[in-house]
Sequence to fold (438 residues):
Amino acid sequence: MAKQYGNIYTLWGGPLAVVVLSGYEAVKEALIDRSEEFSERLETAFFNDIIKGRGIILSNGHTWRQQRRFAVVTMRKLGLGKKGMEHQIAEEAHQLVEVFARSKGQPLDPTFHITNSVSNVICAVAFGHRFAVEDEQFQKLIEAINYLLKFLFSPTHILYEIFPWIMRYLPGPHKQAFSSLDTVISFAKDEMEKHKETSSLHEPQDFIDFYLLEMEKHQNRNDPVSTFNEDNLAQCIFDFFVAGTETTAISLKWALLLLANHPDIQDKVHKEIKNVIGSSHSMCYQDKKKLPYTNAVIHEMQRFKYAFVSGIPRQTAKDVKIHGSLIPKTTGIFPDLRSVLLDPTRWKTPAEFNPNHFLDKDGQYVAREEYLPFGAGSRICLGMQLAKIEIFIFLTSLLRTFSFRLPEGVKELNQDPVPRVAMNPHPYKICAIPHCRT
Ligand code: HEM
Fold:
């Protein structure tokens, strides 16, 4: 559509209009150069009814500012120290390696195992502990999140946005979306209760501990504008699960698929890890500086097979004039991040899986300003650092242990995505062959 209508155009869904920003220049101008004017998240009937302005991803104004600032600082604190995030991620990566080892080189669909691992990372951050895969409550939590993500931008969701006053009273999949949210919120609230009974808040260990402490501080001060309460805490945890599980899982699934389809690239990554790191210690995020080729492959994988169909919609915080057009306040904005990652004016071979996009002539890693899978500006992904650490440690731990090969008789895995809000690959199986046997 950008080819036909230009890099800024309006899409109509019934009576609802959203302005799409396509390509690096348009997205950069809005999200980076004019960050404040485009800083709000889109408010719609369904999102207002289900989220009620709480948490971080879909909140605006004072609630967003206060919750986001606190979460950014807390994420940083949780990343430090021996029991920091990296240690927990390395532990999850170890569990995932064990699962692949048990498959004994037979074809395996990695979806279930990767989803459990990345969900457990969020559990470790939010609750301070992981869950056994067979835990029924944990599986219900994952199902509820999957249902909600499938529901978003489905025909029933769109109908709800256009006719909310009717849909509120009709049965249908939207009712299950509401009960899925309740499932996640009550899971979070149960954990909060357990923390209140057992935790020693003078030594906070996880997000709930830090948040309960902050709530207490604001209550003691009788702060009249505090947004620190149990509903916002539960909503923040919901946000971490919704924003942080499927996105990361999809990225890892694409990575294994692409590497199985490109054995030459996979072998180069393996050789680099083997030669530089060896098998002396478990992988840590700092190692990425010593692994320029591996680092470039990870970036290229996220560029070439982006986890979202476009990005997370924003809305204008005031009337905005851009490229001669007036966009009124509270108009929906779709910053099309996929189009930035595939922008033919910025990437040499945008439609090819080509790690050279992130390498200089000496084979050193180069950062690219048009690499924006986590968005940009004041609303940039809050879990970006966590996601980067996860993807690096999970992938390198797997690749130093196994060679990922196509099952016998399979020539290539399907590289087309299943088109939804989150762009999953089609279900596939791969064989994890331990290196010592090859
Ligand atoms: C590969 C993995 C991930 C990708 C591709 C991704 C991408 C994004 C994008 C595109 C946005 C919108 C940014 C914008 O509007 O400019 C976002 C927001 C957000 N992400 Fe992520 N994300 C990932 C992982 C995570 C993780 C692990 C967490 C866990 C904490 C997380 C938490 C959030 C939150 C809370 C927001 C809302 C920020 C706000 O509105 O202020 N994300 N993410």
Notes: The CA atoms of residues 277 and 287 lie 8 Å apart. The first strand starts at residue 8 and ends at 13. The chain has 17 helices and eleven strands.
